[in-house]
Request: fold
Amino acid sequence: MRLHTKHFGDIDVDDGKVIEFKEGLPGFPKLTKFVLLADERGTGGEMNGMFYWLQSVENPDTAFVLVNMVRYMPEYNPLVEEDQMEGLGEFNPDKFVIYNIAVIPDNVREATVNLKAPVVINDENHQGKQVICSNDEYTVRHFMFK
Reply:
């Protein structure tokens, strides 16, 4: 499929890589189909850069910057109630990937990431959902570089 995007121009995307967010994302309930784009790919095609983009298939102007904080903050362990994981399929830690939405201002040293509401994607069935973790120590504006 060919997508027209605001930030990346026209891109070709494999239909099988579309991730469905059945409930949309908070503030964007009507946008349910996204693709995950990476800034770097490894030799095996795996996504291994620092930043990712969750690009809406339905709205070319909508893309979210994501970070895999587990990679950069190994102690990050969001606790999520089981009922919030409904719709993502059978839990398999090898297939579930956790991302966090980041806000990158002009001064990148002020970049923040939302640790309180991670985006969980099941790589096997291409279902995604933003959930709220119960950890009190995580905030919606965690400074990435401080």
Notes: The CA atoms of residues 6 and 49 lie 21 Å apart. The two ends are 40 Å apart (CA to CA).
